[in-house]
Amino acid sequence: MYKLTTEQQHLQLKARDLARSAFAHSAAATDVTEDYPWANVDRLLSEGFMGMTIPTEYGGQGRSYHDTVIVIEEMAKACATMGRITVEANMGAIGAIMSYGTDEQKKIAASAVLGGDKPAICISEPNAGSAASEMTTRADRKGDHYILNGEKYWITGGGVSKLHLIFARVFDDGVDQGIGAFICLRDGNVPDGLVIGRRLYAMGVRGIPETHIEFRDLELHKSMLVVPPGGLKRGFASLMSAYNAQRVGAGTVALGIAQGAFEEAVAYAKDREQFGRPIAEFQGLQWMISDMSMQIEAARLLLHAAACSGESFPDIAMAARAKIFAAETANKVTNDSLQIYGSSGYGRHNAMERHVRDARMFTIAGGTAQILRTQVASSVLGMKLPQTRNGYMAR
Ligand SMILES: CC(C)(COP(=O)(O)OP(=O)(O)OC[C@H]1O[C@@H](n2cnc3c(N)ncnc32)[C@H](O)[C@@H]1OP(=O)(O)O)[C@@H](O)C(=O)NCCC(=O)NCCSC(=O)CCS(=O)O
Ligand SMILES: Cc1cc2nc3c(=O)[nH]c(=O)nc-3n(C[C@H](O)[C@H](O)[C@H](O)COP(=O)(O)OP(=O)(O)OC[C@H]3O[C@@H](n4cnc5c(N)ncnc54)[C@H](O)[C@@H]3O)c2cc1C
To answer: What residue stretches are annotated with the Acyl-CoA dehydrogenase/oxidase C-terminal domain (predicted)?
Structure first.
């Protein structure tokens, strides 16, 4: 059982106040316009919810991932887009750079995020989604620079993010060194070679653009290559280890969406009358409400435990379990909440259909529920579980 400290309870209340007063009322408009909510991001920044995990020596608050999930749930409950922005402003790319980067890299990243930027993490490719380690984006050394070529897809924040962390296979003298991550800033002037491609219009969480990004002879100084302590040969494993934090964050957005939909459904059940009495008096709905409350509470416990696990970053299996459970809970709870609303939930004049759409992405993005189950199985069985045919044959 987790218990929030007094300080964490204050943080939760501060986040809840901001989310309710500033973000909840614009969530529907953000969904309809599909515009990035710049004004809300300014508020998120000025209230101290961006770059919370950045160490104090780089201008941040040095907060834990546990503190961060407390804030994310509140933001996502009010507006899923703001929930996801809070994740990327505190986890993912910024977490990896603040842990593995050089002093110069940390200063660049901290300055971007503490200036209001939500970084973009560029891993997935059209032919390497689940099979992320099969990425073909390559960086070839040329003197003091690397030349990047390749294509990423479903990059959250494409066209609005300033800081990009680009995963690529690194070649020195044509020899594969392993996978590293490059920092590329899109700061007013778009660097030659960084091409923001077409937008992928999404089913939910529509306030953040998802785009293709191409690298066409993108030239980056060698000092922009983030090399984790284990070197490039262990680069992919170390970078994915940092990414476990973002999985916990994404799961928490799913939780916040579920909690928000649930609260609305409970209030509606007490208010709506059929057969001369509130529909909350019908056992068929009472048992649905019980199940929803259990699933939400269990998801929250798994997420908080995962956020507190590991050393620098959450443990791979705990993060995977928590994200799978929270994502599947969000799909179930938002659908059941809509059911409790009946036709009113199905109408677009109501928030329920948006909650269902917003919840849908989390069994896909950040590692699908199937891939993450394989990671959990690998941990439980103590077995490597290569997914390629020749991986098994080699064993
Ligand atoms: C990891 C996979 C790509 C599977 O690929 P492979 O079979 O080639 O790799 P593995 O042998 O499983 O892994 C190689 C190496 O890395 C270690 N590893 C892998 N993942 C992690 C992790 N999460 N934490 C720690 N370590 C990790 C692994 O143990 C191996 O180490 P050893 O060599 O054994 O010591 C695939 O499973 C995978 O994760 N696919 C999903 C890709 C993904 O999550 N993409 C996210 C893109 S960003 C995004 O979607 C943002 C959306 S959001 O909502 O935030
Ligand atoms: C809204 C959204 C935001 C995203 N944001 C980002 C981002 O910011 N940065 C980024 O890099 N990526 C991002 N992604 C991409 C995301 O990481 C990928 O969608 C995800 O990793 C799955 O890859 P894929 O979509 O190519 O599906 P595929 O890998 O093609 O999978 C298709 C289906 O096959 C299943 N499958 C594949 N391999 C296996 C296996 N070995 N065992 C069992 N089932 C398997 C999958 O589970 C899935 O059901 C985002 C995606 C979405 C939807």
So the answer is: 234-380
For ligand 2, is residue 156 a contact (CB within 6 Å)? yes
Q: Is residue 159 part of a domain?
A: yes
Which token pair is 280?
């909350």
pLDDT along the chain (395 residues), means of 10: 89 98 98 98 98 98 98 98 98 98 98 98 98 98 98 98 98 97 91 96 98 98 97 98 98 99 98 98 98 98 98 97 99 98 96 98 98 98 94 65
Q: What pLDDT does 191 receive?
A: 87
Alpha carbons 160 and 140: distance in angstroms, whole number: 27
Q: Do both 324 and 285 map to the same domain?
A: yes
Helical packing angle, 80-88 and 65-78, nearest 10°: 160
Number of independent structural domains in the chain: 3
Q: Is the CB of 81 under 6 A from ligand 1?
A: no
Q: Which ligand is nearest to the CA of 120?
A: 2
Ligand found nearest the CA of 129: 2
Measured from the alpha carbon of residue 211, the closest ligand is: 2
Q: How far is Cα 222 from Cα 112, in angstroms, rounded to an integer?
A: 20
Residue nearest to atom 55 of ligand 1 (CA): 366
Domain of residue 85: give its range.
Answer: 6-115
The total of other beta-carbon atoms located within 10 Å of residue 286's CB is 13
Find out whether the beta carbon of 264 lies less than 6 Å from any atom of ligand 2: no
Pocket flag, ligand 2, residue 373 (CB < 6 Å): no
